[in-house]
């Protein structure tokens, strides 16, 4: 079996590759890097690409996909592309136009997966991060069940193959699952997940509802200043992780990725560095023992790198719940 094409079946019958290429980079990174890195990722075997409107690089990522289709490396149907509906577009009538804008930037007819990016609505409009005169984010309110219905319509219209959510806690997921007249369940919940925040309870909840948990910041995030608390310890320097890496003759990064895949989590990994992009696909070339898996479970300490504090007072802020 070609491990690189390992896929998991979603609850709507489509398949998602277990390893995905992350494309977010802070704004000071030139957008051309996303183009080059995504092309290279496809060349070395990544088939799942994770992006979003708010990353403001869908044009470049789309261009990378187009160029790898044009040169015969892949066919469109071999690529699994995820986009996300940003917080300023959660009002139901804005959902389809937002997805259509992403498709236009990407030069694609459909995406494979469209997610509600974060369950906190922001003031609708052109500004992706609308702030008041004091620099405070301007939030809004929305019934996420109505937003979900608009996503269901996008799926029916063929603009996306699958629909899901991101950064939802289990109560927010339950609200969608229990919605009157639900047509499609979310196929996944994409959340921060790594050995310091292993999300065991949310993972069990998702598995019990046939919802795939997709891990982001699987290496402990990019530690972007202004977004991530710099006092948090660096995941890849964890002594247990480093010892397990040494024992298995692997890097701590590969151990952190392999840990997720072995526990049934679809895993995203961002790198814009050719050496590390190539390294990361080697996650399929080794296995962790049950003892190693248990030891990694033991270093969980509920450290959330992406706290998204601007939403903390909003009723939709997801991280006030335990899971
Ligand atoms: N849904 C959401 O709200 C949400 C939030 C955050 C992220 N995401 C998605 O998830 C993706 C991944 O998460 P993330 O961007 O936070 O970062 P991540 O995957 O945890 O990666 C963090 C850093 O690790 C470095 N790295 C990659 N491979 C490595 C290796 N083999 N050894 C050592 N270092 C390595 C990368 O730097 P180099 O580039 O220098 O290699 C990268 O900056 C994002 O790009 C995005 O697509 C989604």
From TrEMBL:
Any coiled-coil regions, as ranges: none
User: Boundaries of each NADP-dependent oxidoreductase domain copy?
Assistant: 19-300
Q: Which PROSITE patterns match?
A: ALDOKETO_REDUCTASE_1 (PS00798), ALDOKETO_REDUCTASE_2 (PS00062), ALDOKETO_REDUCTASE_3 (PS00063)
Extract the Gene3D superfamilies matched here: NADP-dependent oxidoreductase domain (3.20.20.100)
Alphabetized InterPro entries for the sequence? AKR, AKR1C, Aldo/ket_reductase_CS, NAD(P)_OxRdtase_dom_sf, NADP_OxRdtase_dom
> What does the UniProt keyword field contain?
NADP, Oxidoreductase
Q: Does the keyword NADP apply?
A: yes
- What SUPFAM superfamilies does the record tag this protein with? NAD(P)-linked oxidoreductase (SSF51430)
Q: Does the keyword Metal-binding apply?
A: no
Pfam families in the cross-refs: Aldo_ket_red
Q: Which PANTHER family match?
A: ALDO/KETO REDUCTASE
Give the UniProt family note: Belongs to the aldo/keto reductase family.
Protein's recorded name: NADP-dependent oxidoreductase domain-containing protein
Please tell me the species this chain comes from.
Answer: Rangifer tarandus platyrhynchus (Svalbard reindeer)
Q: What does the organism's lineage look like at the top?
A: Eukaryota, Metazoa, Chordata, Craniata, Vertebrata
